[in-house]
Write a structure and sequence with these properties.
With 664 residues, the protein is an all-alpha fold. It is 64% helix and 2% strand. It is built from 23 helices and three strands.
């Protein structure tokens, strides 16, 4: 078996709000799993016991269906309704309660869960991807009609306002001037040749005749709704004549339905088939390289991107969920080990190599050979142990490879068509760095800086969470200085943060963490209490590091030049804006400098803009008075930075004193 990589790029169904889905997905998953278990057990029981279990299976399915009602997910309800039809058929004796039918519905449930999980992970809404599973259910029921157009969701609130596209010169312009009774035999004569043809090539003469007749009908409509309807039929015929769709069967079916619609016109009926309209729109949405008329219709009905060319491919239920979850855990563990290995932790480095072997095997079991080769390449490079002077670059490339693997496993069912190429690109960059060469700057490499920035942001967020854990431990220690065990727990966490900062080459912040580790070691080993100044330094540096990591996680480009570590004083300094900016000010995290920093703020912003916050009057500076007529976003960002800095200053002013006051 091989993994299929899709060329899906997005859907025009609009942005999907994952919030409601995140609330109910757990309930949906549990209800479907219980329904599946009850159904599988029913297939093994006698009639009476089996009937009770079938009722339970149906009840759980109804529970899942009800939860889906509050989530705006197109297409899923069609599948659950079809599954319910199958369950009812078994309950009524029209279908046997067999292990085969139980397995089929179980596969459908798994497909639904995986589809919803993909939506929650950020994949676009593409309801038609559920069609193969819906088709399985309908075939069991011997449904007379099974069409993927049911999974197309056009916007019918718009109407075709532009009739600027050229209409065949033979088309007539007045309503009622066409004799539909005489026109229909012309249509059927051309249609017969199309139906008899083994294939439908581009520019087929009979398709041209059909297109011409449909254009005549369109031009004869003076009712807006009817004109819109036949405009879509014209667009479909235009697509078929240009050879933009590969399924001859669907083309023949739609033309046959158009013939029936012409019969309605000949009988002076104004009935227009909504089913035919959706099927024609479906074909227009499928076609490659749309003609101008096709694109006009796609845009109006907002169907661009809803039907990928490979929509009939099965994407769900193909992967063992346990294997996938194991692989995801391996990646998370490898990321942690790689950070620790970069601090010189030999055991972590050995464990990382072992984890690479597990990842390569897991990738192979998930039918991802390009990812397996990437892990094998990383392991081979590290085993050689001959990283050149570009070892920092190599560390970052490996980190990027881990992020690439994480993203791959998150979107495993909708991998981009160039997935294999990107994996090979990562391999080539790693090998180039190993050989002491630049990894390259071709257009194909353009995705690497973005991937590395995402890794930096993700790692910064993780380090920020770890730092908050350290702060909680130190809070307990500061409350009772005899609790030195808190220091022992904080040390390895800080070492991990130090390794992460080294990995992303933030040397000043790394030195601040190293300084904090050394100070904690002295606190733990000291025979007598350490002075207040030392406690203040820890509090100051942790506060500054928290500010630094928060900025790095959200806007990594903005931290450059704003933070520095003073080796002499052991203080980590921060600046609201870069040095040299007329509004710049430095925040020095030392007790003696707090007032100087506040004075500097007043000199830049004015005393009215810098007010000391207390519980009754929080600081809300009017930065517009200083920033002038600049863009709102920049002013707002400055306001946030200044507010954060003021909060840090207030904390710094009060916390060290409270520490020394409360310490025994």
């Amino acid at each position: 078996m091989s993994m299929h990589y899709s060329d899906i790029t997005g859907s025009s169904l609009g942005d999907f709000d994952t919030g409601p889905l995140s609330w109910v997905l757990g309930e949906i998953r549990e209800a479907l799993q219980r329904s599946r278990a009850a159904l599988e057990e029913a297939a093994l029981k006698s009639d009476d016991a089996g009937a009770t279990l079938l009722n339970h299976a149906n009840a759980y399915l109804n529970q899942a269906h009800g939860a889906l009602q509050i989530v705006d997910v197109h297409g899923v309800g069609l599948v659950t309704e079809a599954a319910e039809e199958v369950l009812h058929a078994m309950m009524e004796g029209r279908l046997p309660v067999s292990a085969e039918h139980a397995a089929l519905i179980g596969t459908i449930y798994q497909a639904l869960i995986e589809y919803l999980e993909d939506l929650l992970a950020g994949s676009p809404q593409l309801p038609v991807l559920l069609f193969p599973y819906y088709q399985d259910l309908k075939q069991v029921l011997n449904a007379p009609r099974i069409h993927p157009a049911d999974f197309l969701f056009p916007n019918f609130t718009n109407r075709l306002q532009s009739l600027s596209a050229a209409v065949d010169e033979a088309a007539l312009g007045a309503s009622g001037s066409i004799d539909y009774g005489a026109l229909r035999p012309r249509f059927e004569k051309a249609l017969l040749e199309v139906l008899k043809s083994p294939g439908i090539p581009a520019n087929m003469p009979e398709i041209r005749d059909l297109k011409k007749i449909v254009a005549e009908i369109e031009s004869a409509q003076n009712n807006g709704k009817a004109r819109d309807f036949w405009r879509v039929m014209h667009g479909f015929a235009d697509m078929a004549y240009a050879g933009k769709f590969t399924s001859d069967l669907y083309i023949k079916l739609v033309f046959a339905r158009i013939n029936l619609q012409i019969r309605q016109l000949a009988a002076h009926s104004d009935f227009m088939s909504e089913r035919l309209l959706k099927e024609a729109l479906f074909m227009i949405a499928c076609g490659d390289e749309p003609t101008p008329l096709m694109q006009e219709i796609r845009t109006l009905y907002q169907i661009d991107g809803q039907i990928p060319a490979d929509f009939e491919k099965r994407r769900y239920g193909l992967i063992d969920p346990e294997k996938l979850e194991s692989a995801r855990q391996y990646v998370a563990q490898a990321k942690t080990l790689w950070v620790q290995a970069n601090t010189g932790n030999f055991q972590a480095a050995e464990a990382f190599l072992a984890k690479l072997d597990e990842l390569a095997q897991a990738s192979s079991s998930l039918y991802l050979p390009p990812l397996a080769r990437l892990f094998e390449t990383i392991g081979a490079i590290l085993m050689e142990g001959e990283a050149t002077a570009s070892s920092d670059a190599l560390s970052m490339e490996i980190a990027s490879g881990l992020l690439f693997a994480e993203n791959t496993l998150e979107q495993i069912r909708l991998l981009p068509a160039d997935f294999g190429h990107k994996a090979e690109m990562l391999e080539s960059r790693l090998k180039a760095i190993q050989d002491g060469q630049a990894p390259g700057d071709s257009d194909a490499m353009a995705m690497m800086p973005e991937m590395q920035q995402r890794y930096v942001m993700q790692l910064a967020a993780e380090m920020g969470a770890s730092l908050r854990q350290v702060e909680r431990l130190l809070d307990e220690y500061f409350a009772d200085l005899s609790q030195s065990a808190m220091l022992a727990e904080a040390r390895p966490i800080l070492q991990q943060i130090e390794g992460g900062l080294a990995l992303v080459e933030r040397e000043d912040a790394r030195q601040a963490v190293a300084q904090t580790i050394d100070t904690i070691d002295r606190l733990r080993d000291a025979a007598e209490p350490i002075g207040d100044k030392t406690l203040q330094t820890i509090a100051h540096n942790l506060s500054a590091l928290g500010f630094f990591l928060e900025m790095l996680a959200q806007h990594p480009d903005t931290v450059k030049g704003r933070f520095s570590f003073d080796v002499k004083t052991g203080i980590f300094h921060a600046r609201v804006v870069e040095a040299g900016d007329v509004r710049g000010t430095s925040f020095l995290y030392a007790e003696d400098d707090v007032e100087a920093a506040r004075n500097e703020l007043e000199a830049v912003l004015g005393k009215e803009e810098v007010r000391v916050r207390d519980k009754a009057a929080p600081l809300v500076p009017d930065v517009s008075a200083v920033a002038g007529e600049e863009e709102f976003d920049e002013d707002d960002l400055l306001h946030i930075f200044i507010s954060e800095a003021e909060e840090a200053l207030d904390y710094i002013s009060s916390t060290p004193r409270s520490i020394s006051t409360e310490a025994p």
